[in-house]
Amino acid sequence: MLVAVGSVKGSPGATTWALAVAARWPYEAAPVVVELDASGGDVGSRFGVHDVPGLSSLVTAVRHAPIGDAAEYAQPLPTGAQVIVAPPADAAAATTAEFTTRGPAVLRELAAHRPVFADLGRLDPASPALSYLDKADELLLVVRPVAAQLRHLKARLGVLAGRCALVRLVLVGPGPYGPDEIAIYTGVPVAAVVPDDPVGAGILAGSYRPGRGWLRRPLLAAARTFALTYPAPETADHEVALG
User: Fold this and answer.
1) Is 125 helix (H, G, I), strand (E, B) or coil?
2) Phi, psi (degrees; rounded to nearest 5) at 23
3) CA distances from 139 to 57, 134, 135, 142, 187 (A)
4) Where are the alpha helices (DSSP H) in 48-134?
5) Which of 135, 141, 178, 183 is least enclosed, having the fewest CB within 10 Å?
6) DSSP type of residue 92
7) How far is the C-alpha of 199 from the C-alpha of 108, rounded, in Å?
8) What's the confidence (pLDDT) of residue 234?
9) Comparing C-alpha atoms, which of 66, 93, 97, 76 is closest to residue 19?
10) Residue closest to 102 by CA, chosen among 132, 74, 68, 57
11) Over 192-208, what HEC string results?
């Protein structure tokens, strides 16, 4: 399963949501979050982990051989999420640019081994990350339920939906519009409604250490509820066999 996660306007928390779902994944095959934002990776800086192993290592490796489950390129975070970190700033731009051609197929192969959440950052019209949508099973667009973000999102949906067959919304924080209103306005279903949770977001950003009961924070609880909407691998295989 290859799930692309991104946004259209502002910084509504796409990386945070990908990390939250990975941290609360309920099934045995642990997912990996892959940072692919051309403007630079944030996870390494937030958690004080090195850029290597990471995306630059993976990009080098795929020139020579298949990457399997990519375990040697992923780093575990204190939250339990596994991440293939991107370097910061210009180094990320160069790395993601080199990976743009082969990257979508590589992540598709990786998704055969484990769930992959591709953190694409902001999906501007010129974003090199758009190519990953061609191989993704789903695009989750993270957005705040406020007019400014929703209008920008609706204006971009035609292009994004043209590259990925399944597009759903993740609504973060309060706003004047409810999920049903937003689904009608955009023509896109709402996959999750996430409450504002500064402490939970801070833990996933490396600002706070996970303490007792942190998995019950509202953000982490919403991520768990969402993750459980995906079928367990055994269930999916059984359904395919029956079909």
Assistant:
1) coil
2) -70, -30
3) 26, 10, 10, 10, 14
4) 55-61, 89-99, 103-110
5) 178
6) H
7) 34
8) 64
9) 76
10) 132
11) EEECCCHHHHHHHCCCC
Q: Which residue ranges of the chain lie beneath pLDDT 50?
A: 235-243
Nearest in space to 192 (alpha carbons), one of 221, 160, 164: 221
What are the structure tokens assigned to 223, written together?
Answer: 């991520």
User: What is the model's pLDDT at position 240?
Assistant: 35
DSSP 8-class letter at 42:
-
Q: Which residue has the tokens 């996933």?
A: 204
The 75-76 sheet, strands edge to edge: 75-76, 82-84, 32-35, 116-122, 2-7, 138-143, 167-172, 190-194
- CA-wise closest residue to 220 among 202, 237, 207: 202
For every residue of 160-204, DSSP letters joined together read HHTT-S-EEEEEES--SS-HHHHHHHHS--EEEEE---HHHHHHH
Hey, what amino acid is at 163?
R
